[in-house]
Amino acid sequence: MAVIKVDHSNFKEIVSENKNTVILDFWADWCGPCKMIAPLVEEISEKHPEITFCKVNVDDEPAIAAAYGIVSIPTLIKFKDGKAVDQNVGYSGKEILEAWIVR
């Protein structure tokens, strides 16, 4: 499954109203660690189609980033039943990241 771009127009439908697990990746174009983690998130998304993977650019959507208190990127937030339940800040290797995502 492809990683879905989230913005103010589709956030509610894709994240808040989703009953499945959602992983929301907060990132920016200029962020080196964000560029390093992006292919890992993409690869993990292909292995776990039961999870919805999304990205939100903090420069394009500062209100969404502020609503979740994002101060460092990359930050991944895990949502269950539309509610944020856990987060992972900074770069993590594939095995650690996948273990966090699926637990």
Can you describe this structure?
This protein has 103 residues and is of the alpha/beta class. Helix content is 36%, strand content 26%. Strand 2, helix 2 and strand 3 form a beta-alpha-beta unit. The mean pLDDT is 95.
Helix-strand makeup class: alpha/beta
Helix content: 25-40%
Number of helices: 4
Strand percentage lies at: 25-35%
The main pleated sheet reads as: 5 strands, mixed
Read across the widest sheet, the strand sequence of neighbours is 1-3-2-4-5
Q: C-alpha Rg, in Å?
A: 12 Å
Low-pLDDT sequence parts: none
Average pLDDT works out at 95
Write the element-wise H/E pattern from the N-terminal end onward.
Answer: EHEHEHEEH
**End-to-end C-alpha gap:** 19 Å
Overall outline: globular
SS elements, strand count: 5
Secondary structure topology:
Layout: E1 4-5, H1 11-16, E2 22-27, H2 32-47, E3 52-57, H3 62-67, E4 75-80, E5 83-89, H4 94-102
Parallel strand pairs: 1-3, 2-3
Antiparallel strand pairs: 2-4, 4-5
Summary tags:
103 residues, 5-stranded mixed β-sheet
